[in-house]
Amino acid sequence: MALSNEQFDRIATTVITGFLGSGKTTLLNTLLTQDGMDKTAVLINEFGEIGLDHLLVREVSEDVVLLNSGCICCSVRGDLISGLRDLFVKRTRGEIPEFDRVIIETTGLADPAPILHTLMTDPLLTTKFRLDSVVTTVDTLHGAGQLDNHPESVKQAAVADRILITKADLADDATRTALESRLRALNPAAPIFPVINGDIAVSKLFNAGLYDPATKSMDVQKWLRDEAYEHHGDEHHHDAHEHEHEDEHGHSHDHEHHHDHSHDVNRHDDHIRSFCITFDEPIHWDAFVTWAEIFTQMRGESLLRVKGILNLVGEDAPVAIHAVQHVFHPPASLPAWPSDDHRSKIVFITRNLGPQVIRESLYHLNAAVSETADGSTPE
Questions:
Q1: d(CA 15, CA 247)
Q2: Which of 174, 185, 349, 366 lies 20 to 30 Å (CA to CA) from residue 153?
Q3: H or E stretch covering 49
Q4: Ramachandran angles phi, psi of 309, nearest 5°
Q5: How far apart are CA 137 and CA 157, in angstroms?
Q6: What is residue 246's predicted lDDT score, i.e. its pLDDT?
Q7: Which residues, in sequence order, are bridge partners of residue 43?
Q8: Of 131, 127, 142, 148, whose CA–CA distance to 175 is shortest?
């Protein structure tokens, strides 16, 4: 893993996922009719699986059609890599109109991780496309049962940057509130929007990545949203000492996220933890790379999503890191710190993996590298 700068002229890519019947098709149809979507390419598994007939205008090739909105719709019959590569080649050759955004719609039973891995690791795709956001749809009426019975549904919500509670008009307030609370516990940083008939502004779903095209800069705080974890497992480490948060009455709080669902031991999200680990002292890059290699190899399935901003020894500016399970995206060197707070902050959504083992392993690896570097043992 080597430090590298992001190339922000890459094409922003949004993944829309969600369980069967959760409203992905309705959402996509609505999005494609909105202003500003004419330079969008949409990749779906098969045209027959999504109701776009009223939007079709003409067929460009067997697998590509142009929509009335000006969007390009591509049917991915093979794997995602070949689909995106073919789409980019057609764009370069002028066979299809220019596009500046890609939407990938997954099947209802899909694990979104392989799609994210593809966008993060394929040598060609990483130079042409960048992951902007993962949008997950959750059915208001059936979402709780799907979270109970289908681990794919839990994972779809856990890795999301935006969560939409669909068919919000079909359930009572208590059902909707309970589902929203459960989703917020799974993924504290993802904004949750109730929607009816897929009606939501594209501005709420897109531009959730590290790069903000409006300002042509990196928006770390919007991307990391570490403040959302303050009440969902914010773990701090300072000079090898553990700090517990105390309220105004002097009561200490253990912020590791736990669920109290003893009435149903089969709930899949009972195994999910969401937390933020903060390091006051700079981290050696070699220590972090060693930690990442160990955890992705040994516990990769447990690291659902990892985001962070690192204060590295010998570096004036921070470095952003991002991982999905066993795959780390190439790190991005940021031009400057977003604030006066120069601590390393790493947010985690994990399965069957708590903050203590992560925090202590990274701390001890960093201490070992420090000792090797300067010949002294850190206190």
A1: 39
A2: 174
A3: none
A4: -130, 125
A5: 8
A6: 32
A7: 74, 104
A8: 142
Q: 340, 320 in Cβ contact below 8 A?
A: no
Q: What angle do CA 361, 118, 276 make, to 5 degrees?
A: 30
Low-confidence ranges of the chain (pLDDT < 70): 1-8, 45-62, 77-78, 214-216, 231-266, 268, 374-379
Question: In the chain, what is the greatest distance between 2 CA atoms, to the nearest angstrom?
Answer: 70
Q: Are 279 and 363 in contact (CB under 8 A)?
A: yes
What local confidence, expressed as pLDDT, does residue 257 receive? 41
Look at residue 203 and give its three-state secondary structure.
Answer: helix
Q: Tell me the backbone φ, ψ of residue 317, rounded to 5 degrees.
A: -110, 160
Separation CA 257–CA 147 (nearest Å): 18
Q: What angle (nearest 5°) sits at the alpha carbon of residue 112, between those of residues 208 and 362?
A: 75
Looking at residue 323, its pLDDT comes to 94
pLDDT recorded at residue 379: 45
Contact 230, 188 (CB under 8 A): no
| Residue whose C-alpha is closest to residue 279's, from 323, 236, 220, 230 | 236
In sequence order, the β-bridge partners of residue 14 are 103, 133
Task: Give the tens place of pLDDT for each residue, 80-139.
Answer: 888 888 889 989 999 888 999 999 988 777 788 988 998 888 888 888 998 999 999 999
What pLDDT, on the 0 to 100 scale, is given for residue 238?
35
What pLDDT is attached to residue 62? 66
Written as six digits, the tokens of 173 are: 């307030």
Instruction: Say how far apart CA 18 and CA 135 lie, in whole Å.
Output: 8
Q: What pLDDT, on the 0 to 100 scale, is given for residue 264? A: 53
Half-sphere CA count of 94, side-chain side, radius 13 A: 0
Q: What is the pLDDT of residue 353?
A: 93
Q: What tokens appear for 15 in the block? A: 């993944």
In angstroms, rounded to a whole number, what is the distance separating the alpha carbons of residues 76 and 159? 23
pLDDT of residue 375: 56
SS3 at position 363: helix
Dihedral, CA atoms, 297, 302, 308, 312, nearest 10 degrees?
A: -30
3-state SS assignment for residue 81: helix
Supply angle C-alpha 56, 68, 81, rounded to 5: 65
108/155 Cα distance (integer angstroms): 12
